[in-house]
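Please fill in the sequence for the structure shown.

STRUCTURE ENCODING:
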C-alpha cells in the first residue's frame, strides 16, 4: 500500500498538526526520504513526538518505516516519470530547497578566511572545484585547488586554522579525502563538505555539510545517467548570497 493510501485510510484519525506534516511531506517527497526526524520536526514546526505519533496513526511502527514507504513511492514515481520530467522536478526541488537555506555561516567563513582551499576526488568533482575557483574570483576570493592525494601531504603543513577547506566527494567515503579531513580537523581547520549522498563519513566530519540531489536516470542505451547541474546550482546560490550579503553591508554603511 502506498503512503498516500495509508493517509486516506486513516485520515479521520489525523489532527491538524498531522495534516500539516503530511502536506509538507507530500510536497517534498524526495527531500523527506533522507530527512532525519529532527530536521522534519524543525521544518514543520512540531515536536519529534508529534511526527512519531503521525506515523503510528498511519499504522506504521515509527518514522523509519514511514521513510521506507516514502522511498518506495519515490522509486515507483521515478519509473512512471519520463527522464525529462524526473530531471526537471529534481532540479526544481533542489533550487527551492537551496533558496530557503540559510547560508550566512558559509558567507562569514568565506569572508573571514585567510585562505580558501578545495580538495576533490574524481573527474566530476574536479570540474566542480574548477567552477568554484572561477566563480569566487568574481568576488575577489582565490581558491587553491588540491587535485591529487599526493599534494595533500604538502598542504597538511601549509593549511592553518585560519583557513577554510571545501571537500568535494560523490559518496563522502573516499579513504584518502576522509583521512586528509581528519588530519585537518586535528588542527581545528574549518571544513565544508559537498557530497551527493547524505549520512556519510565526510559529512559527519565537516563543520558544514552541504548536499546535492543528483537525478539518477535509467538509460536503456547504457549506464545510468547522473545529472550534475545541482552542483553548479549550489555554487551559484552561494555566490549570489555572498553578493547580496555585501550589498546589504554597503547599504547599511551609507
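FILLED IN BY: designer on duty
SEQUENCE:
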Amino acid at each position: 500500500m502506498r503512503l498516500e493510501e495509508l493517509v486516506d485510510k486513516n485520515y479521520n484519525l489525523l489532527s491538524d498538526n498531522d495534516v500539516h506534516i503530511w502536506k509538507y511531506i507530500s510536497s517534498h517527497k524526495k527531500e523527506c526520504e533522507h530527512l532525519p526526524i529532527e530536521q522534519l520536526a524543525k521544518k514543520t514546526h512540531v515536536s519529534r513526538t508529534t511526527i512519531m505519533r503521525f506515523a503510528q496513526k498511519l499504522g506504521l511502527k515509527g518514522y523509519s518505516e514511514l521513510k521506507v514507504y516514502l522511498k518506495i513511492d519515490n522509486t515507483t514515481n521515478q519509473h512512471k516519470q519520463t527522464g525529462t520530467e524526473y530531471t526537471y522536478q529534481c532540479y526544481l526541488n533542489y533550487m527551492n530547497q537551496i533558496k530557503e537555506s540559510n547560508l550566512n555561516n558559509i558567507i562569514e567563513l568565506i569572508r573571514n578566511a585567510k585562505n580558501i582551499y578545495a580538495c576533490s576526488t574524481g573527474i566530476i568533482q574536479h570540474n566542480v572545484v574548477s567552477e568554484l575557483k572561477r566563480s569566487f574570483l568574481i568576488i575577489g576570493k582565490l581558491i587553491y585547488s588540491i587535485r591529487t592525494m599526493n599534494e595533500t601531504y604538502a598542504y597538511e603543513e601549509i593549511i592553518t586554522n585560519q583557513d577554510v577547506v571545501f571537500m568535494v566527494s560523490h559518496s563522502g567515503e573516499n579513504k584518502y579525502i576522509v583521512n586528509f579531513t581528519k588530519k585537518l580537523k586535528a588542527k581545528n581547520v574549518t571544513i565544508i563538505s559537498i557530497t551527493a549522498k547524505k549520512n556519510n563519513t565526510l559529512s559527519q566530519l565537516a563543520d558544514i555539510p552541504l548536499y546535492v540531489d543528483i537525478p539518477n536516470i535509467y538509460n536503456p542505451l547504457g549506464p545510468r545517467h547522473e545529472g550534475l547541474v545541482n552542483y553548479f546550482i549550489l555554487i551559484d546560490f552561494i555566490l549570489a548570497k555572498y553578493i547580496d550579503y555585501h550589498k546589504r553591508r554597503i547599504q547599511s554603511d551609507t
